[in-house]
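If your schedule permits, I should be very grateful for your opinion on a structural question. The matter concerns a single protein, recorded as an amino acid sequence and a row of backbone structure tokens. Could you please explain, in whatever detail you think fit, how the structure tokens follow from the sequence? I set the record out below, with my sincere thanks for your time.

——
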Amino acid sequence: MIDLHTHTVFSDGELIPSELVRRAETMGYRALGIADHVDFTNVEFVINHVSKVKELEEVLEMRILAGVELTHVPPAKMEKLATLARRLGADLIVVHGETPVEPVAPGTNRKALEIGADILAHPGFLTPEEADLARDNGVCLELTARRGHNITNGHVARLALEAGVKLVVDTDAHAPEDLIDRARAIEIARGAGLTLDQATAVVDEHAIIDL
């Protein structure tokens, strides 16, 4: 299992990074991305502190990525923040997409795709034009296990398949019970309309991590 969208106490998650890593390890995770919510007020704090958990890679058979999730950042300011996060050492840039269950600013999806974020999380009612842009700029679209955000998984999967966009399955985990195993990740992808072969490929042949 590879999951590149999780949260810790450094934003709105329940676990400190080491416990999140340990719980993921017991579920057979091969790679874990910690992408706590950031804006201009906390990006330096989050990257500086969460990146220290990578010390555990020396004693684990798990890849740990210390990333960020740009959250409710005005589209006009997103590129500046993403550039800052990468300069500070973020391994992964996730953008909090236009989920229908939160008042995300219109234009967030498109700006995330234009600036080449690594993952556009729970992008909601993505447009065909945005799917094409994701393909052209190498941005992965997320199929999420998170309740509420996942109501548009089927729509996202359909447009991604039509446009040839890379998909990832992530949990957006905030609590221990949010973590899932490989079998559940495949179920999430199949529930979004992928065939068993397609779902297995998305989960095992990961678009970002090659282990």
Notes: The helical segments are 17-26, 43-50, 75-87, 108-114, 128-137, 153-163, 182-191, 196-204.
